Amino acid sequence: MFERALIANRGEIAIRIARAAAELQIGSVAVFATDDVASLHVAKADRSVELGGTGAAAYLDVDGIVAAANATGCDCLHPGYGFLSESSALAAACAAAGVVFIGPEPATLDMLGDKTAARALAEDLEVPVLAGTGAATAEQTEAFVATHGAAIIKAIAGGGGRGMRVVRQPQEVGEAFARASSEAEAAFGNGALYVERFMDGARHVEVQVLGDGTEAMHLGERDCSIQRRHQKLIEIAPAPGLPESLRADLHEAALKLARACGYRGAGTFEFLVDVTSTTPTFAFIEANPRLQVEHTVTEEVTGVDLVRAQFEIAAGRRLRELDLDRRSTGFAIQARVNMERMTEGGDALPAGGVLAAFDPPSGPGLRTDTFGYAGYETNPRYDSLLAKVVASSRAPFRAVAAKLSRALREFRIEGVDTNVAYLRAILDHPAFQDGLLSTGFATERPLHFDERPLLHVASTDSGSVAPATAGAKVDAGDPLAVLAFGRESRTAPPTADTPAANEGEALVAAPLQGTVVSIDVAEGDAVAPGRCVAVMESMKMEHEVRAETAGIVRRVHASAGDTVYAGHPLLVLEVADVDDADGGAEEMVDPDHIRPDLEEVLARHAATLDDSRPRAVARRRAKHLRTARENVEDLVDAGTWVEYGPLVIAAQRRRRSLDDLIANTPDDGMITGVGSVAAELFDDPASRCAVMAYDYT
Questions:
Q1: d(CA 65, CA 649)
Q2: Pair (178, 236) in one structural domain
Q3: Which residue has the higher pLDDT, 336 or 495?
Q4: 214, 205, 306, 308: which is closest to 248 by C-alpha?
Q5: CA distances from 89 to 14, 94, 402, 628 (A)
């Protein structure tokens, strides 16, 4: 067995691996980024090593990770999930350094990491797959949709729901393909896409496999159908209500794939199951050559410690030597508790703050894997997953769902918004409890939020709130970093750490959570009401912060790059009469003269029109397509169009020049406005419409 393991991950999975290592008497070494020293995994390992760097980039540094393993005398490395867990480069670097990689061989990672190669393997083995393509262009995708109907565009590399779009008509492909490719390029460094037929109403079922490089065995399946935007929310083992013959076919298909690639370690083979037909069918979609977030539910129903098994297989033990009992008893359900807040429109935005209270549920048949603790300040640079709550029992599925719902009512989390109420609404839904699951469940059914009281004592300390300053410098061009700083769950007066205004002074506060792009005044400047004093960025848009009161700037409490919560003071004004904040003398101006600033505005408006964009229009013409403005002009009655936001540009000022953005991102890609449509048929206001058109140019 190994002597010491480097855990190349963070958060709850790093803690899970350290515990398994301890049971095997393997020493553990945690790694952490400079901005992640407060994460609980750092304290749970026997030793810890700072990687240098901040954010996810630190955990994606292959050379740095392997160097840390060598420096601390580690003879094995466990990658967990996410980050470098599917990296053949890391596996190869470990082999070169004499460190055992806890996972498949590099060749296996390469093959299964390429989704089209994995599809080809399945086809060779006569495992069912959906109609699909290899690496595809937008034009090939349009042709595929025209032939096969609804399709899903997917990234060839990576996973986790990124780089995926569903299209139902050929005309939807252009936008969806561009967005998916851009997202995949940003997330995985590879914008290549492929296409598969979209299976409406399907269930997402995955089979857990263990292999020793020669033989393979399955540990049953999990249902992962409850998703939002292709992100899993609730997972179940075993999949409730599957016909036993279909269950056996899924197990056999997974084993056929695992044996064919000489699989070693823990892995998952994923399928879509069509339950809408009289005879349910299935199709292979992809493999995950690593430990899964939802491995917990398989462990609870089988009693097999999957992380321990990974260590033992990597140490050379055969499956037959592990004496694994594959019995499956009852059901286990996992709910992913994410740090997020729901908008009025039903969208989820990452949230953050300081955990003022954190008390996970406990009791027979309950398990919580987490890195949270009271006093922990969340970090926007990392995933929003806070905890995984698992309920298991030999009772019927409906009873286990109710048990998990109650456990979430007992979970005391204060200081940070979470999706607990949303999870309970799903678990309490009659269709869920009846096992009527599909990948569209969370979006196709109305959810009723439980108004019963929570089963814990709430804090009475009204002064205990998360600080208004996030305490980190964040790249303003990274929308995830901005969004991750959620709105405060309650309002409270400033704490000792929050700057306050004295008598005769006025605060200029951040109107929203976001990143400070610039502070446009300095101490001593005179400011008139309405003057822009700062610029903030949130949700990929820049927002001007204007003074509501005249005065003299006395203190500045933020600087460019600071991420702040809504309400955080940016600067303090000494209230004073200010006639002319810029100190310039009023001058007479010819009313017929076009001022330079107005001339610039007119030029900016003109630059958004088709006449000023001949190359962009030519590209549309080459494809025998019209422009968005031509479509709007034909749709809206003449003389009624009022456009909103034509001067908006993409919020990428740190990466691109202003001239580039003005020329190439007018309207930030979306033409919006109001006007009347078919007024000759409909009286006002029935003819009034809001119009949005994506500008493909």
A1: 39
A2: no
A3: 336
A4: 205
A5: 21, 9, 44, 44
How many other C-beta atoms are found inside a 10 Å radius of the C-beta of residue 102? 30
Co-location of 429 and 564 in the same domain:
no
Last residue of a domain, one of 155, 171, 197: 197
* Element containing residue 220 per DSSP (H, E): strand 216-228
Shared-domain flag, residues 566 and 666: no
Residues 304/322, Cβ–Cβ less than 8 Å: no
- DSSP output for 524-543: T-EE-TT-EEEEEEETTEEE
Three state DSSP letters for 569-584: EEEEEEECCCCCCCCC
Q: What is the mean pLDDT of residues 252-257?
A: 98
Query: What type of residue is 326?
Result: R
| Helix-helix angle 115-124:106-113, to 10 degrees | 90
CB atoms under 10 Å from CB of 496, counted, come to 7
Print the domain residue range for 518: 472-575
Strands of 76-78's sheet in order across: 47-50, 27-32, 4-7, 76-78, 100-101
- Whether 293 contacts 388, CB under 8 Å: yes
197, 215, 249 - which closes a domain: 197
CATH of the domain at 226: 3.30.470.20
- Torsion angle defined by CA atoms of residues 643, 647, 648 and 653, in that order, rounded to the nearest 10 degrees: 170
Using an 8 Å Cβ cutoff, are 235 and 223 in contact?
Answer: yes
**Which residue(s) pair with 222 in the sheet?**
206
Pairing of strands 340-342, 562-564: unpaired
Q: How many domains does the chain have?
A: 5
**Exposed/middle/buried for residue 671 (C-beta within 10 Å: 0-12, 13-18, 19+):** buried
Under a CB-based contact definition with an 8 Å cutoff, are residues 165 and 171 in contact? Answer: no
- 114 part of a folded domain: no
Residue 153 lies in a domain: yes
Q: What is the pLDDT of residue 450?
A: 67
Do 359 and 409 have their domain in common?
yes
* Greatest pairwise CA separation for the chain in angstroms: 93
CA distances, 360 to each of 276, 371, 406, 418 (Å): 38, 11, 12, 13
Give backbone dihedrals phi and psi of 695, rounded to 5 degrees, phi first: -90, 100
**pLDDT score of 654:** 60
| 558 and 664 assigned to the same domain | no
126 lies in a domain?
no
Residue 467, Cβ neighbours under 10 Å: how many?
A: 18
Specify the higher pLDDT residue, 170 or 567.
Answer: 170
Residue 683 zone, left/alpha/beta (φ > 0; ψ -120 to 50; rest): beta
- The span from the CA of 297 to the CA of 304, in Å, is 10
Q: Tell me which residue of 347, 350, 339 sits closest to 484, measured CA to CA.
A: 350
Closest CA to 96 of 119, 138, 66, 73: 66
Written as six digits, the tokens of 602 are 């007119």
Q: What is the pLDDT of residues 266-283, one digit of tens each?
A: 999 999 999 877 788 999
pTM of the model: 0.69
Per-residue pLDDT tens digits for 569-604: 999 999 998 865 454 334 455 666 777 778 778 888
